[in-house]
Amino acid sequence: MTRLRRSDPSGPGYARRSTAKGPVYEDEAGNPIVDERELERIRSLVIPPAWQDVWISPDARGHIQAVGTDGAGRRQYLYHESWRIHQDRIKFERASQLAETLPAARRKVTMDLRSEGFGRDRILAAAFRVIDLGSLRIGSEEYLHANGSRGLTTLLCRHAQIDGDAVTLTFPAKSAQKWASTIEDEDLAALLGEIVALRGARSRLFSWKEGTWHSIRPASLNEYIRRQSGGEFTAKDFRTLHGTIVAAKALAELGTADTEAKRKKRVSAAVDEAAQALGNTPAIARNSYIDPRVFDRYRQGEVIDTSGGRAPEPALLELLATS
Question: Where in the chain is the domain with CATH 3.90.15.10?
Fold first, then answer.
């Protein structure tokens, strides 16, 4: 990997200025950049035209190459390719570690979920179960107020429909998408059914009671995940693991292929299935949520084996461990 230097976007950097003839890039002193090699590096970053207040690293080896403010007022970052590769390796390894811890963590969560009342840990256990089985985004008050999109921690009782052991969640999700998923779980359905019956349709679904009702917070859920798993995991790691498993199982169902054209077509279909499960575009699902080793193994003629009702997590670990 290229030896990188840590960027400081608060320090001096290049700027982008819009003109009638297109963007002009200026150095730290405000002079137009004319060096063709440097201009080619900047153009290769493909900084979105809509970004405002753009900062560009003057160092080709800076770990952050550009920063800008998008149309929603959020600061966005473009990283050096070597940095992205390194961070992706860490991310997918963390998802594999989560897969190893899940059997024991799930047993602890089940104990909390089967406790009495509406205590904090019981509600956090329900949230863990939904993150684990449904791969929802965790949600935040900021996203809700800025975009009207919801995640697990900001769901209302009216977003849940309980039918026997089935919990169906339907709500406005990120990027103006409608999320609809059903989770089959007796313990979860029993608890959420009680909450929906007790509280109003516009009350928060994942709330615990100690005198009054309190909504769970993303930080509390992530802390509970770490406590039960014994690792430094967050709700997002479940989405990475889930996306990888969905793609791996889809490839196994499609079967190995004897030509490169067939392999590409089946990989694309597996990515589409993972994207559908996660509520992302195929490009984001492939680049951010599916361990690329699954595709490497597929090209070598290897697929995940979940026959005989085998749990997907150990089957995935076995697949990824092969050389």
Answer: 107-233
- Which residue reads 């992706």 in tokens? 88
Find the range with the poorest average confidence among 48-57, 61-70, 173-182, 289-298: 173-182
Contact 205, 155 (CB under 8 A): yes
Topology given in CATH for the domain delimited by 236-321:
Topoisomerase I; Chain A, domain 4 (1.10.132)
Q: How far apart are CA 95 and CA 272, in angstroms?
A: 20
| pLDDT at residue 1, as a whole number | 60
pLDDT value of position 74: 84
Upper half-sphere CA count for residue 196 (Cβ side, 13 Å): 18
The full 3-state SS of 189-225, as one line of letters, equals: HHHHHHHHHHCCCCCECCEEEECEEEECCHHHHHHHH
Q: The tokens of 241 are what? A: 């693991």
Residues of the chain with CATH 1.10.132.120: 236-321
**Spatial distance between the Cα atoms of 54 and 126, rounded to a whole number of angstroms:** 42
Instruction: With beta carbons less than 8 A apart as the criterion, state whether 183 and 105 touch.
Output: no
Which regions of the chain carry the CATH code 3.30.66.10? 14-79
> What would the CATH number be for the domain defined by 107-233?
3.90.15.10
CATH entry 2.60.120.650 includes domain 14-79: no
Q: What's the pLDDT score for residue 102?
A: 97
Residue closest to 231 by CA, chosen among 97, 43, 135: 97
What residues contact residue 180 under an 8 Å CB cut-off, 6+ apart? 168, 169, 170
* CA 1 vs CA 6, 49, 85, 89: distances in Å: 15, 29, 9, 12
Contact 303, 248 (CB under 8 A): yes
Give the global pTM: 0.87
